[in-house]
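Residues pack. One example:


***
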Amino acid sequence: MDFGAMLEAGRRDFHEAVRGVTEEHANTRPSPAGWTVLECLEHVVATEARSLQHIAGGRPVTPRRNSRRESAVATAIRNRLTRVESPEGLRPAGRFRALAAALAEFDAVRSRSIDFASEQGERLYSMAARHPFLGTLNGAEWMYIIDGHARRHTEQILEVREAIASLAKTL
């Protein structure tokens, strides 16, 4: 698997989801409990940075590749039907005021993830770190987590955009 290419495709999809979002809409809450587009971005940036730290600081393990487990991890993280409460340190706190700044930070952390995946290559299967919900994952599985998590929130951003458009029609 070319994890760098997978992460780059995820970056393009993420950018596509936010293309055309105005600053006003980036800060519009779709519902009282919903996150804004900027809050989604902030959460994705923080989570990806932390995930990359986990695996970069992981421990060596005997290499193992399990395609079924990789598929299960990738599917589970992208599933928006399963709600997961974000840990306190990864919840949005208003770090970004502008969409351009948030996207620049997303691009920076995504570039670090792509570089790491490309530099490690097959060695990703020889490193492991504990995920707070899924247990111990090897580096390849972490790459699926990084990609899938951003894609999960790509879908959320599209949902937010749709909700905002619906609100605008009723006003």
Q: What stands out?
A: The mean pLDDT is 93. The radius of gyration is 16 Å. The helical segments are 3-18, 23-26, 37-56, 67-78, 99-120, 139-170. The chain is about 60% helix and 5% strand.
